[in-house]
């Protein structure tokens, strides 16, 4: 065992000379591994006499413990050095702005709803809502649509199973039931100016129709209301929405059971680079339906039709979004494609304002 002190010194020197964690681990294995030099010495203790083992055992254990401590200290030093080098390489300038975190996008339909609310709020309209599962009375009967009306056909409307003898309810086919509910809430004694945006449902699906879509209804109830008020309101709305002063309207006589007289509203468009652009007078495009509220609808809402008059209008929010922002397939609105939404979506900070432009 005369070489034990020399072996200890050599192993300690190798530990101090190790310049990486891999090199240090190689020294540990060579000394303390299953085939290591110190491990081999420990195995010789079994063949020694008790007196010799009593002398050499503590010496070998001291070498083992000293080497273990030296390896641990060297490993800590190498870890610190590696961390210091990494910090030096990856220095951050804390004065620079942080990278922008991934953000979601506002869907074009939600954006257009906000634009509509902003425009009509400036005209004195409130936003009203109602249930999407409606009774047939609110969805049809109160709106002057008798039981024989085609819209009540099963192939046009989603009906829900009736329970306990109740009349079958429907997924509302339009947001017009909100008009009746708003009139009832006003008690038949107050003027009303509301818009009612929301989801609606019909059995239809193609490039410009989906089973679920979005509509906005407008309703004004007051005394002395005329078609002139309706035309001015629609013209002001469309100019603000499309952000063009050359909006030209054409009202064509039509039929809706809940208005009399009724009118389809066409807006002039121009052709730019082969595409239709709202504004100008190269042609006409139908954008919404409107009319003076039918006497029976006013009465169903709790108002005296001999004293109160009103106008109503409605259009598809999805269609408005397509016309304004250049989308040509309604089905893409509901595909859930993140790439489409990234392209057509809006930043959460793009809050529509009349002063900044509702389409900002």
Output mean pLDDT. 87
Q: Roughly how many Å is the radius of gyration?
A: 40 Å
Overall shape: it is: elongated
Strand content: 15-25%
Estimate percent helicity: 25-40%
Explained architecture:
The chain is an alpha+beta fold and 360 residues long. It has helices spanning 4-17, 21-32, 37-43, 50-89, 108-122, 136-139, 177-186, 227-242, 295-300, 317-325, 338-344; strands at residues 126-127, 133-134, 170-171, 192-201, 212-222, 249-256, 259-272, 275-278, 283-293, 309-316. The radius of gyration is 40 Å and the shape is elongated.
Short description:
The chain is an alpha+beta fold and 360 residues long. The chain is 39% helix and 20% strand. The chain starts with a helix and ends in a 16-residue tail after the last helix.
How is the topology of this model organized?
Elements: H1 4-17, H2 21-32, H3 37-43, H4 50-89, H5 108-122, E1 126-127, E2 133-134, H6 136-139, E3 170-171, H7 177-186, E4 192-201, E5 212-222, H8 227-242, E6 249-256, E7 259-272, E8 275-278, E9 283-293, H9 295-300, E10 309-316, H10 317-325, H11 338-344
Parallel strand pairs: 1-4
Antiparallel strand pairs: 2-3, 4-5, 5-10, 6-7, 7-8, 7-9, 9-10
Helix pairs in contact: 1-2, 1-4, 2-4, 3-4, 5-10
